[in-house]
Amino acid sequence: MIDWIYPLLLVGAGLIVVSVFTSFIAFRFGAPLLLIFLGIGLAAGTDGLGIEFSDYNMAYFAGSLALAVILFDSGFGTPLKSFRQAAAPSIVLATVGVLLTTAIVGMVARLVFGFGWIEALLMGAIVSSTDAAAVFFLLRVGGITIRDKVRSTLEVESGSNDPMAIFLTIMFVELLVSGASLSGLTSQFLAGFGLQMGLGLALGLLGGAAMVFIINRVTLEGALYPIIVLSMAVLLFAFTGLLGGSGALAAYVAGLVAGNRKVRGRDTLAKFQDGMTWLAQIAMFLILGLLAYPSQFGAVALPALALALVLMFVARPVAVWLCLLPFHYARDEIAFISWVGLRGAVSILLAILPLIAQLENGEALFNTAFIIVLTSLLIQGWTIKPMAQWLGLIVPPRIGPVERVGLELPGNAHHELIVYHVVEGSPVAEGERLPRWARPSLIVRDGHSMRYQYAGRIRPGDYIYMFISPRYTRLLDRLFASPTKVEADDKDFFGEFKINPERPLSALRDAYDAPIGPNISLDKTIAEYMRERLGGGAEQGDRVAIGPLELIVHDADVDGNVTAAGLAIDHDEPKPRVPLFVNGRELLHLVRRRIAMARHRRQTRPEPVQETQVTEDQVAVADQTPSESKTA
């Protein structure tokens, strides 16, 4: 009676093992890892190895559970500084951007498929959000370091735009099921949007605070803390949805709150959640791959590919450009944000809803969404790094790899045991001294342990044990890092000149005639000015423009203060790689210039000679001789 259990476990575990082992392809060849998981699911499905799976409700349940885990971990891993820096543009992208994408894709879907308006807009809503798992993997694990503002915008947007897409998809499905028209959509949209997002935000804030309170005050076995945190995240996701709110938004906000507070066993929580997020991603993509029938793709292949190209090259860029117009993003930054609009598991998951509702064109919608996701992962996912390099958005490495192991201490000590392996050519191996607050407790050399005081000079191959606060780890990494080759384009990225950030702004004005604003104190240091312009915290590679000058952060401490800076002088503004996306500042400047030119033309235009109408009597008088005129 239970013979089916072992084959099911064998197949499921086997697919996960194969997926994990094939992950080296992604790291070695730059392939989108989630595309590999999806491909394994397709290969194992009905049209591949023949594994039958067509339970749409079970697939949607498993996908929703995985989505709750992924979104909570996305919020947990987002620093509050990054969220503050990118909150406004990201929220606009996650709401207005999703609406614009839905509208543009919907119009094209109506043309290429002949759908009705509601079905066409449903198609647009299904593929309107970027995939958090794909974006986070490519930006955090993909081996590239993007400028902080751009990376933060993409991460916050991808983690927060799913609730809007889910809301729109459910709303359009309900309209189709009920047979209602679009006439009363505005009031229904506003009421539903306010309820879902309001409840999601409020319960997410409360849930995140409750998690922190429970973790820090309840004494449990160490291994149980990650389990209870993840269980509370899923509980919050389900409870919010049960009340009519957005469970996806609640899970993300709760993760954001909990991840930016002091919690017990933070490192253990982060590692456990990383593993569970990977498992959730693998399981979700495998299940969605098993659910599809590639043999049915041919019926919608051409219009689906057309829709995918419109989404990548028209809908997403237009939506991003319009949403970022009020913010200070360079053209190349807008182009990159437009390109990193990967569609993934969420789009396929939402495409299951028309099948569950048994809509007439449910299969066409599902297969189209699947083809769009495959196309996005193949084209966009494989070109993220080359695109970032071409646009000049990758921050050149300033330090090499670090061989370090950390172990968090139990309780609320807020310290951890750090073990560094001293490598050849690192600053400490070359004789640079450790700071006073980082005195090692133990040194292991050639298999023998000794006290730091009696070890003498630190040598390559030593293992240094020390107890420090986690906030100082980043500073020590620079001392123990392997040497890195200075790239040829470092000067282009970090500026040709180094400046002292502790100097006052008046020195910058006197030396370079920098146009400092009238309401800014010239006694303020360059570092203070840069930090204010950057939203209260600086990171390596951040830039601040002052007229033709550009201040560039070379280095920053753990509190976000600028400790080293560079200067680039661009008398001629560099030509952007992608000249299509005019930002708000450039557009305003262009409008002002047009107005000034028109005003100048009006002021310098010569007065026109006034033409007068000459009557016949005036002509007759003009023809008279002077004497005749006098007589007359």
From TrEMBL:
Outline the segment boundaries, as ranges, of region: Disordered: 599-632
Provide one Gene Ontology cellular component: plasma membrane
| Subcellular location per the Swiss-Prot or TrEMBL entry | Cell membrane
Q: How does it sit in the membrane?
A: Multi-pass membrane protein
Keywords on record: Antiport, Cell membrane, Ion transport, Membrane, Transmembrane, Transmembrane helix, Transport
Read off the InterPro entries from this record: Cation/H_exchanger_TM, Na+/solute_symporter_sf
Q: Which GO terms describe its biological process?
A: proton transmembrane transport
The answer to whether keyword Membrane applies is yes
Q: Which organism is it from?
A: Pelagibacterium luteolum
Q: What is this protein called?
A: Cell volume regulation protein A
